[in-house]
Amino acid sequence: MGKPTGFLDYQRKDPGYRPGTERIHDWRAVERMPSAEDLREQAARCMDCGIPFCHGCGCPLANIIPEWNDMVYRGKWREALDLLLQTNPFPEFTGRICPALCEGSCVLGLNRDAVTIRAIELAIIERGFAEGWMTPQSPAERREERVAVIGSGPAGLAVAQALNRRGFLVTVFDAARKPGGILRYGIPEFKLEKSVIARRVGLMEAEGVHFENGVVVGEDVSLKYLRDRYDAICLAGGAREPRDLQVPGRDLKGIYFAMDFLRQQNRRLDGETIPAGEEILAKGKRVVVIGGGDTGADCLGTSLRQGATDVLQVEIMPEPPPTRSPSTPWPAWPLMRRDSSSHKEGGTRRWNVSPRELIGKDGHVVALRAVEVAWKTGPDGRPIMEERPNSAFEVPANLVLLAMGFTGPRKSRILSDIGVARDNRGNVTKDANNMTSVPGVFAAGDMARGASLVVRAMADGLATASGIERYLDSIKSTCTSLKADADSAV
Ligand SMILES: Cc1cc2nc3c(=O)[nH]c(=O)nc-3n(C[C@H](O)[C@H](O)[C@H](O)COP(=O)(O)OP(=O)(O)OC[C@H]3O[C@@H](n4cnc5c(N)ncnc54)[C@H](O)[C@@H]3O)c2cc1C
Ligand code: SF4
After folding, report:
1. Whose CA is nearest to atom 3 of ligand 2?
2. 184 CA distance to ligand 1 centroid (A)?
C-alpha cells in the first residue's frame, strides 16, 4: 500500500472533461489527463485491501490493480507498466472507454468513492508511450503454423497480438478499410481518438502481424479457402445485427440505425467522402434517439457536434436510481444512472417512453408518437410494462436514430458456409478451448458472447489465443509421434 492513510486523506478526483462549450465545437477527446500530483494522490487512495475484488471479480482481464496503484504512488512507472501489460493487451483502449467494472467492486466503494482505477491505468500506458518504452515485442522464434483472424475489433486484435508474440504467423482479415472494428467505426472520436488505434496497429505490424483490410470473408474469399491455407482460424466478426423498431412509419425516410450514423461520421473524420445521397447528418435537425444506452449517448454527442437543433433521447426502461440500486449490492456492477460526457453537453432524456408510431409527411419522418409506461414486478419476479392511461404524446423529429442494441452476429456466409453451430440467440457456440463446432475454427468476442464490452472482447481474445495455441501444440505433438512411429517402423 502506497500510503496507509491515503483513503482518509484524499477524496476521489475524476480527470474531468474539457469545457462543454469548447468541446462540442470539435471532435477531439473530451477527457482530460490528470496531473502527476493528482495521480499520485488518487493512487494513494488504494487501501491494498487484502482481497482485491477489483482484480478478482471486477476486471475481466484480472488486472493486478493494487500493485500498480502502489507503484504509481512510489513513482515506479516502468514497473507499473510492465505489470499492467502482463494482463491487459491494450490499456490505451480500456483506459479511455472501459466502464471500469473494477471500480464497481472496489472495497473503498463500500462507504466512500471508489479509486479512479481507469484513469490511473490510462496514465500508466500513456507514460509508457511517452517515455518510448512501448517498443515492438517480436517473437524470439517463429513457428511455421499460420493463423487467420477474421475481424479486427478488440477481440481479433487481442488474439492476433498474443499469437504473433508466441511465434505464429498471423494474418488479420477485415471487411472495413482500416482495423479496429467498433473501436474505429462505432465509438466516436471524442471518446477514442483513432490515432490511438493506428499507434497500436503500427506496433503490431512492426511485430509481424499482417493486416488484410477491405476483404469480406465469405464473399471476397471463402472460409473454405482460408481453411485450406491456415492451420487455425479465429472468427471475431462481432455482433452487429441491430434491433429494429417494429412500429408503423418505420419505412419513412430519415430513420437510421445508430451504427450507420456513427460509422459515417468516423469515416468522414478519416477523410472519406460520403456520396451526397447517402449522407446522414443531424445539422439543423430535430433529432430523436431511441434507446437510452451508450450507443444512444454516442449518437447524442455526435448529433450535437454536427449542429442538431435539439436532441431527445428516449428509453423504455425506468430511470435508474442516482446511486447503487439495492438490487445490485457491492461487489456487483451497480445499477445506477450514468451520465456520459455527451449527456452533460446538451439534449434531453426521457425514461419510461414506448414509441408507437413514426409520423411522416411527403415520405419523410416529421414526428414520433409515443406513450409513457410504468413498470411493476410480475408474479415470477420479472418486470411487466403497462401503458399509462392518457399519456400519448408527440415530439417533432426529422432525424430518428435507432440505438436499441444488437440481436447477435450479422447474417453472413462465414457462419453458414461451413455450418458453424450457434445458440438460440444466434451467437456462435464454442467449447472450453474456445473452439466452435468446426475443428480448427475458433471464436472470440461479441460473435460468441453477444454484444458486450471492449474489455470482455479483449479477455475473450486472450483466452481464445491460448485455446488456439493448445490446439496447434496438440496437432504438432501428434504429427511428431506419428512420424517417430513411422520412422521406427521403417
Ligand atoms: C456505438 C458503440 C459504442 C460502444 N462503446 C463502448 C464503450 O464505450 N466501451 C466498451 O467497453 N464497449 C463499447 N461498445 C461495445 C464494444 O465496442 C464491443 O463489445 C466490441 O467492439 C466487440 O469487439 P469484437 O472484436 O468482438 O467485435 P467488433 O468490434 O464488432 O469487430 C468485428 C470486426 O469484424 C469485421 N467483420 C465482420 N464480419 C466480417 C467478414 N465476414 N469478413 C471480414 N471482416 C468481418 C467487422 O468489419 C469488424 O471490424 C460500444 C459498441 C457500440 C456499437
Ligand atoms: S480494463 Fe476496465 S475493468 Fe479492468 S482495470 Fe481497466 S478500467 Fe478496470
Report:
1. 59
2. 9
Question: In the block, which residue shows the cell 472482447?
Answer: 457
Q: Name, in order, each residue with C-beta under 8 angstroms of 71's C-beta and a sequence gap of 6 or more.
A: 77, 79, 80, 83
Query: Using CA positions, which residue lies closest to atom 4 of ligand 2?
Result: 59
Mean pLDDT, contiguous 10-residue spans, the chain (490 residues): 88 96 96 96 94 95 96 97 98 98 96 96 98 97 97 98 98 98 98 98 98 96 93 97 97 98 98 95 98 97 98 97 94 95 97 98 98 93 93 98 95 85 94 96 97 98 98 88 80
Cell, residue 446: 461479441
* C-alpha 435 – ligand 2 centre gap (Å): 26
Ligand 1: which of 187, 427, 430, 449 to mutate, most ligand atoms within 8 Å of CB?
187
Cα distances (angstroms) measured from residue 85 to each of 63, 68, 81, 296: 9, 11, 6, 32
Query: Helix 65-73 crosses helix 117-130 at what angle (to 10 degrees)?
Result: 60
Lining ligand 1 with CB less than 6 A are 97-98, 150-156, 173-176, 181-183, 186-187, 216-218, 236-238, 240, 259, 262, 294-295, 298, 412, 414, 445-447, 451-455, 457
CB 407 within 8 A of CB 426: yes
* Ligand 2 geometric centre to CA of 193 (Å): 19
Q: How many residues does the chain have?
A: 490
